[in-house]
Amino acid sequence: MSFTDEEIAYLRSQPLARLATVATDGQPDVVPLSFEFDGTHFWVGGVGESVLVTRKFRNLQAGNREVALVVDDLLSVDPLIVRGIRVYGHAEPPVERVGRVGPGVYSRITPAVSWSWNLDGEPAGDTWYESRRTVHEAPATS
Hints:
Layout: H1 5-13, E1 16-22, E2 28-37, E3 42-47, H2 55-61, E4 66-77, E5 80-91, E6 95-99, E7 102-117, E8 131-135
Antiparallel strand pairs: 1-2, 1-4, 2-3, 3-7, 4-5, 5-7, 6-7, 7-8
């Protein structure tokens, strides 16, 4: 399975995500960042090679490639309206490319499992939102 048209539209409408990586000592680290979604993969990174010294890239370069990514927004507090997508995936070593924030160094994240909720933007009501769970097939390699 893959992302629905509604999920893709939501991902492309959002400017920020939160990326969680894990350091070699086991310490989790989460950072807000800009991201791109190409319909299959997520791309995270930044301008220039200085991005390679950030904690997220040090964690990835140390071999900790399993990541979690959350894209969400809060439409209203009263009534409560929250929507989002959470992704577990695998990050690849960084490559040079032109990305959302310009030419730089980016890592490609392949989703393994995702959960989405309330992309229609409805109030929560008396219960929490049901989520849609998707197991993503690895893209074919050429």
